[in-house]
Write a structure and sequence with these properties.
8% helix, single chain, mainly beta, globular, 76 residues, 5 strands
Length: 76
């Protein structure tokens, strides 16, 4: 895999590549990967920050992807 960037929002090095596609049941995610789902499009984010949950693509567009428990607690 190519060089992992720093998070453009918080500057953290806790950045993970988002693995898309239907992963085989025996596929083991590496420490620098996070599952992204089986539906894939060109606009999907490529990177995920483990510190602030910002997800962005190669063009720099992004959004926060909070864990489900944080969405419930913050009424998001």
């Amino acid at each position: 895999m190519s060089t992992v960037p720093k998070c453009p929002k918080c500057g953290s090095n806790k950045v993970m590549w988002i693995a898309y596609g239907l992963l085989r049941p025996d596929y083991i995610l590496r420490d620098d990967e996070i599952p992204g789902g089986c539906c894939v499009s060109e606009d999907d984010p490529k990177w995920h920050c483990g510190a602030c949950y910002w997800e962005w693509n190669c063009e720099g567009y992004g959004a926060y992807n909070l864990p489900e428990e944080d969405k419930i607690l913050n009424n998001v």
